[in-house]
């Protein structure tokens, strides 16, 4: 494990004590999937101000049904912009409902609608199950935009960690399949590249906390159905594999400086800029994977402000 504790922001060290310590394996996966392992405080007033619905739609090409949760401020009428959200969890855990308190607050803060998809998880379903679920759900959202009161010109995708990787993959898939145009992609410490698992010269100070190399190897193996790093991995599984990043929507990327995904995220942002994609990149010193959940830390507060500010500009463009 990298010896980087001395680099961790002092205000983030408390979260390390609270976060369950485990290395992903078949034996520990049920623990990762335990509901409310790290419960997010809910605000009754916020809950009362948001209309929450469950939507179930057919999967693509005979796949199982796909469920989604939608959130809309009750007091806002008319047509709203929308965030299509994909949850994290290393491709093997997580749910749309686990983010509900954050999503309720977000739609009130941003004056928008948000729809979050429950995709099939690995290892029970390997690639391309999850990305096909996301594709089916997003296309349904565009088809139902008028009924839902959504402006189809202001729909963008957002995800954290594995959800960020799926969001980036979905954007590539829609471009390549001539799908509907997206207003933005918003990637928070995204999981983009299986080759990080087999890097010959890995960053010496990243991946020491929360999400480590052994967990990364397990998660990518679960998603791919084989060991990561082979030449045949699809860019719809690992977006960093895409050779052409042109024609993608404006992009936000953020990551902690101690996150295992640091170098793959920086490189993706760099390549986006070289492809002519408007890209905003943030790297936060002293921050590990998932650091923005530490509510009292200034660096976490800054990351959340940067994220919300970018979303506000995407959703409510001026001019």
Verbal overview:
The protein has 319 residues and is α/β, with parallel strands linked by helices. The chain has one domain: Rossmann fold, CATH 3.40.50.1820. The protein contains ten helices and eight strands. Strand 1 and strand 2 form a beta hairpin. Helix 5 crosses helix 7. The model has no long low-confidence stretch (mean pLDDT 95).
Please give a quick description of this structure.
With 319 residues, the chain is of the alpha/beta class.
Strand order of the largest sheet: 1-2-4-3-5-6-7-8
Rounded average pLDDT = 95
**Termini separation (Å)?**
49 Å
Count structural domains: 1
Please report the number of helical segments.
Answer: 10
Q: Strand tally, please? A: 8
What's the CATH class label? Alpha Beta
């Amino acid at each position: 494990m990298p010896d980087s504790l001395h680099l961790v922001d002092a205000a983030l060290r408390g979260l390390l004590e609270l976060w369950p310590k485990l290395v992903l394996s078949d034996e520990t996966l049920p623990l990762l999937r335990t509901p409310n392992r790290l419960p997010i405080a809910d605000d009754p007033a916020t809950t009362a101000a948001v209309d929450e619905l469950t939507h179930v739609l057919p999967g693509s090409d005979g796949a199982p049904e796909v469920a989604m949760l939608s959130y809309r401020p009750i007091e806002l009428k008319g047509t709203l912009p929308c965030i299509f959200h994909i949850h994290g969890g290393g491709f093997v855990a997580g749910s749309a409902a686990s983010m509900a308190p954050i999503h309720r607050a977000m739609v009130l803060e941003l004056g928008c609608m948000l729809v979050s998809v429950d995709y099939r998880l690995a290892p029970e379903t390997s690639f391309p199950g999850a990305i096909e679920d996301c594709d089916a759900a997003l296309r349904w959202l565009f088809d139902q935009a008028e009924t839902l009161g959504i402006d189809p010109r202001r729909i963008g995708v957002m995800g954290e960690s594995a959800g960020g990787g799926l969001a980036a993959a979905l954007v590539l898939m829609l471009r390549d399949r001539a799908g509907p145009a997206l207003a933005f992609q918003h990637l928070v410490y995204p999981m983009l590249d299986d080759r990080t698992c087999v890097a010959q010269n890995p960053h010496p100070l990243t991946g020491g906390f929360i999400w480590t190399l052994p967990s990364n190897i397990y998660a990518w193996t679960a998603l791919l159905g084989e060991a990561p790093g082979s030449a045949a991995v699809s860019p719809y599984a690992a977006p960093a594999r895409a050779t052409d990043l042109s024609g993608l929507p404006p992009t936000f990327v953020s990551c902690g400086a101690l996150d295992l995904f640091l170098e793959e995220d920086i490189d993706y942002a760099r390549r986006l800029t070289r492809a002519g994609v408007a890209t905003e990149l943030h790297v936060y010193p002293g921050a590990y994977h998932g650091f923005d959940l530490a509510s009292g830390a200034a660096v976490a507060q800054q990351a959340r402000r940067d994220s919300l500010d970018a979303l506000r500009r995407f959703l409510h463009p001026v001019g």
